[in-house]
Design a protein that fits this description.
Blueprint lengths: L6 H25 L6 H33 L2 H21 L13 H24 L3 H25 L3 H23 L1
Helix pairs in contact: 1-4, 1-5, 1-6, 2-4, 2-5, 3-4, 3-6
Length: about 180
């Protein structure tokens, strides 16, 4: 059985997509405590998925520009950026405030999608520096974050907030690990 030549890249990007989607998942758990209709849940997931495509795209454009200008130093910078994002994600999981500060309708939905996908911009920045396959990245980041958002919203209806803390910790740890991998080689 032939193995795709970029299987390692698919696996790495899948783990990164899961790590980034964990932020949306954990926030969606808290938001799932708000009574939401299934149509609203579906829309929220699609919008979050789209933002997890747009943000890394913007980051990749900037990252590729920086890579052409600065060369090898940008790889180390991208790794450091991933580690800092992971640490921030891990630290935010230790905060006790799990309730969403906004209602996911109209501007609130855009604000929600932006807030859970901002880290995707920074990750896109480092991925643009490393030169990964763009379409594969977008498909994985968008679909995984959309599915994790749906899962978080639906689970939030059934479960209290303790899972959100642990999922953000795992996501932060994964980002730190990939940042170290990028720095070490």
């Amino acid at each position: 059985m032939a193995v795709l030549p970029f299987t390692g890249e698919i696996i790495t990007l899948s783990f990164m997509a899961m790590a980034l989607g964990m932020d949306a998942f954990s926030v969606s758990l808290g938001m799932g405590l708000i009574p939401l209709r299934l149509r609203r849940i579906a829309l929220i997931g699609v919008v979050v998925g789209l933002f997890h495509i747009l943000m890394p795209f913007a980051g990749m454009l900037v990252g590729r520009f920086l890579s052409n200008q600065l060369g090898a130093y940008t790889t180390i910078g991208g790794g450091i950026l991933l580690i800092l994002l992971g640490i921030q994600m891990f630290r935010s999981s230790l905060k006790s405030d799990d309730t969403p500060a906004l209602n996911p309708v109209g501007f609130g939905l855009l604000l929600f999608a932006t807030s859970v996908s901002l880290d995707s911009f920074s990750v896109g920045l480092s991925l643009g520096i490393s030169g990964v396959r763009t379409a594969l990245t977008f498909i994985l980041f968008g679909s995984v974050s959309m599915m994790l958002t749906w899962c978080g919203l639906l689970l939030g209806r059934k479960v209290q907030g303790f899972l959100g803390t642990y999922s953000e910790m795992v996501g932060g740890s994964i980002l730190c690990a990939f940042g170290l991998q990028l720095i070490i080689g």
